[in-house]
Amino acid sequence: MVRIPPDQLTVRRFRPEDAGEVAQCAYRCYDYSYMGEALYVPERVIEMNRTGEMVSVVAEGPDGKVYGHAALLFAPGAPSPESGCAFVVPEARGGGTFVRLKRQLLEL
After folding, report:
1. Structure pTM?
2. Torsion-angle region of residue 96: left (phi > 0), alpha (psi -120 to 50) or beta?
């Protein structure tokens, strides 16, 4: 496994073209054990971000691939969003990538 240095990752807002890689990252981190199936369906990730049900950020490597994801989830009637759907693939873990994803959500 080739490690991705954390300082080479850019944390940014999700774009629709990221959805397939977000689904792959979810699978690599959780297999199919993550609660809810939306993260495994690229079209659903796109739709949730389009409608505002979910607001996502990703960690992108210098190769343009997605190595991590985190989101705010907005449930109808909830007083505040839930922070979740957060994961970083093994080769990009360490060095604060997870924290950077969460901080980016706070800045939205």
Report:
1. 0.93
2. left
